[in-house]
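Example 5.3 — Phage holin family protein
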Amino acid sequence: MGFILKIIITGIVALVLAQFFPGVTIDGISSAILLALVLAILNAVVRPILVLLTIPITFLTLGLFLLVINAIILYMADYLLDGFNISGLLTAILFSLVLSIVTAIIDAIF
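Solution (predicted structure tokens):
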């Protein structure tokens, strides 16, 4: 699947998921697509650094700390974007988990 199509689909999925999570707000489709683009950039640049720095914690928690790293990436996106807001660590963890699962399923289908 092309990069642009994947960004658009991820943005639409994030917009739909925001309706189900009370602590997540996305202003519109343009904010959702911009969120998907920012998440792609943060996952490509910042996430590997965070994973490398937290290898001991990740090892001790049997990989569960990666969920916290995903939440940190979402908080960074919240800080960078005006049209996206997330409140609460548990909401961020659950939103990132569901977003990852749904986009993985869509990638597998297409």
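Remark. The first helix runs from residue 3 to 20.
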